[in-house]
Design brief:
Number of strands: 27
Number of helices: 22
Radius of gyration: 39 Å
Largest sheet: 6 strands, mixed
Strand order of the largest sheet: 23-24-22-25-26-27
Shape: extended
Distance between the termini: 44 Å
Structural class: alpha+beta
């Protein structure tokens, strides 16, 4: 008899005298082998092994449960966690095979999650199985939310459609336990399969409940992480939309349909009224001062069943000046209420031009001959406005020949308006640039719609970038030309480039150890993952050297942490500079530990590098009178070489390299322990 106690739970193990089991057709005596109470969090499990029908190894169960919880808390991949949970459960009883299925409530079926010991044809047949009261064990358990026990599947009606599959897989009994969420919803099923007819004992019922509970923890963790990821994506989307609204040159406002309350305005809307902030407008009663009350009648006016979507109104600016606004609106739902999204365009210049054109047309009808000179003056005025505009303006006919180039465009094109007239883009620009400009023009002609594109021009002082709007120009016969107006955005592009450079520098800092200046563990883990996948793909060797400074704690305690930091920096620099190949990397792994990764390096090559690194440390000649192996700072090294075709994970490789390091430390320190594996053989040298 033996007992263990951790202060909260007491474990009592009773070992009976030697017992020979009776024949199979003889009832088993009630002989108690083990009694244990295991309690964790809110789950309490009593495990009793009696005769040959219960759990044979309590230690295996406790170890499996602890391992599962560690994986769940550690945030590992949920598929790997569920797979390991099945394997750990199967270790308790060698005659058992386990599976975990997700319950797809939307599709009313079960989906494969984990079944490491079941054949692929079996898991493929179950994946996507519709749930129902007679859908096997797992489909019925997911449907009813209750445990389903089938002692012999070849005669049970739930398995009528799956009997051939069960025979082929060697399955004779199946027990399925629903996996419940914290809110008692069914997340999936945890099933146990046996190759002989069996009825579960009380202990086995408690075991399947316990493992289903562990599976629920892992599945709910995955669901929580997915919800957080979707929430973050929604936040970023909202931020992008807000940025788009704020940088839009058109005024935008959202007005409650029932109350006239202005729910949102962008910055361009505020500037249209001559203010810098919406507070400046609100302080004097914006709606009463700057908006005609009749506008609200227009906002609700309808023509038939549809809103009137466009209107031109005259507005008042904060400085008292008036301007013309084209309003375009659409009914939307905003913040759980019906609202109107209203776009505001400043058409003051257009209205003035329209009025001027009307006046000129009226006069031209009366005195065409007499007003020819005045028309020429008007054209000259228009040309002056165009020429003195800070924006790039030009017009091409439908054959791509320039018919107007303003002064800003002259500066960019390198030709005058007179020189450029009649020429095409291919006459003025390199072929790739001309092809791009011509394609933009053709797209406007084909679609009949404006388009916006970035255009770059190389001048003596560098590259200048313009955001250009190209638009079709019509007469009574259709499109006759393509106009273009471009605003320089060079400063903005430079700011964007500087921001991207800062982002890249920040990313570089995240992979660098702050003390030593060499790669940190995060960088090493990233390189290890990449190089191990490459080694597996190409079946090439990969070598890892784990390094630990001998007796570093006494060094820190006696020489001080400043000296300790200086020691780490000296050794980090020396180790990094000793590597000759660009693909090799030395990183600080943590504390006084360093690690080196060498792709495509066999065991002999890795051993040679390890010896060089050992000598580099010794050659630094850093005094250490508190070391038990030398009067200078030394290192212990563990060197591991594996071949990519081996079925290993990166984590397993690091564990083996760390094991070799500790063999060096336990073997006297200031030495190397190396192991080389060529797939089936392992060679260890010290």
């Amino acid at each position: 008899m033996a007992s263990l106690s951790n202060g909260c739970t007491r474990l009592l193990v009773l070992v009976p005298p030697r017992w020979n089991p009776p024949p199979c057709n003889t009832p088993s005596p009630a002989v108690t082998f083990t009694f244990a109470v295991y309690k964790l969090a809110s789950t309490s499990i009593r495990i009793t092994t009696a005769g040959n029908g219960g759990l044979d190894d309590l230690g295996t169960f406790l170890k499996a449960r602890a391992g599962a919880l560690e994986r769940i808390v550690g945030g590992g991949d949920v598929a790997e966690t569920l797979d390991a949970l099945c394997r750990d459960t199967e270790d308790i009883d060698p005659g058992m095979r386990c599976s975990i299925l997700y319950y797809d409530q939307a599709a009313q079926c079960v989906r494969h999650a984990a079944a490491p010991s079941l054949p692929d044809y079996f898991t493929s047949a179950v994946d996507g199985l519709a749930v129902g009261p007679t859908a096997g064990c797992c489909g019925a358990a997911a449907y009813t939310g209750e445990r389903v026990i089938v002692e012999y599947v070849l005669t049970h009606p739930n398995w009528e459609a799956f009997r051939d599959l069960a025979r082929r897989a060697g399955i004779r009994a199946c027990w399925s336990q629903p996996i419940y969420s914290s809110t008692k919803d069914v997340l999936g099923t945890f099933a146990m399969y046996f190759d002989e007819a069996r009825r579960p004992t009380e202990d086995e019922i408690q075991l399947i409940q316990a493992q289903a509970h562990l599976a629920s923890l892992a599945i709910e963790r995955r669901q929580t992480e997915k919800m957080l990821s979707e929430s973050e994506a929604l936040r970023r989307s909202e931020q992008r939309l807000r940025t788009i609204f704020d940088v839009n040159p058109s005024g935008i406002s959202i007005i409650a349909l029932e109350t006239n309350e202005r729910l949102f305005t962008n910055q361009a809307f505020v500037r249209m009224f001559g203010a810098e902030t919406i507070d400046q407008l609100s302080a004097v009663g914006f709606e009463a001062t700057y908006v005609n009350p009749a506008d609200f009648d227009w906002l609700r006016s309808r023509r038939g069943d549809a809103f009137i979507t466009e209107v031109e109104v005259e507005r008042l600016r904060r400085d008292g000046s008036r301007w013309w606004c084209l309003m375009n609106r659409r009914e939307i739902e905003f913040e759980s209420q019906q609202a109107l999204l209203v776009w505001h365009y400043d058409i003051t210049e257009r209205k003035r031009a329209e009025q001027e054109i009307e006046r000129l047309n009226s006069e031209l009808e009366l005195r065409v001959a007499q007003r020819t000179s005045e028309l020429r003056k008007s054209q000259a005025l228009f040309k002056a406005i165009v020429d003195h505009s800070p924006t790039k303006i030009h017009i091409k006919d439908t054959d791509g020949r320039y018919v107007l180039i303003n002064r800003e465009a002259e500066r960019l094109f390198g030709v005058s308006d007179a020189e450029g007239r009649g020429k095409t883009a291919h006459d003025l620009f390199p072929k790739d640039t001309a092809d791009r400009f011509t394609a933009h023009d053709q797209a406007v002609i084909d679609s009949g719609e404006p388009m916006v594109a970035e255009e770059a021009f190389t001048l003596d002082d560098g590259i200048h970038t313009y955001l250009t709007t190209k638009f079709p120009i019509y007469d009574q016969n259709g499109i006759t030309a393509v106009g273009a107006i471009g605003t320089e955005i060079t400063a903005r592009k430079k700011a964007e480039a500087a921001l991207e450079k800062s982002r890249q520098e920040l990313a570089l800092l995240s992979f660098t150890d702050a003390l030593t200046g060499i790669a940190n563990r995060r960088k090493f883990d990233d390189v290890l993952d990449t190089e191990w996948k490459r080694a597996q793909r190409n079946e090439t060797p990969l070598s890892i050297i784990m390094m630990d400074i001998d007796f570093f704690k006494p060094f820190n305690d006696n020489y001080g942490h400043t000296a300790g930091d200086e020691c780490l920096k000296i050794l980090a620099k020396a180790l990094s500079e000793s590597l000759e190949r660009p693909g090799d990397l030395v990183a600080r792994y943590g504390g006084e530990e360093f690690v080196c990764i060498m792709p495509e390096t066999d065991g002999d090559g890795a051993r040679n590098v390890a010896e060089q690194l050992l000598e580099v440390v010794r050659g630094a000649r850093i005094p250490h009178e508190f070391s038990s192996v030398a009067d200078i700072v030394t290192m212990s090294l563990g060197c591991l070489t594996v071949v990519g075709r081996q079925d290993l994970t990166a984590e397993a490789i690091m564990r083996d390299a760390d094991r070799l390091l500790y063999q060096s430390k336990n073997g006297g320190r200031n030495r190397i322990t190396a192991e080389s594996r060529d797939g089936e053989r392992s060679k260890i040298s010290a």
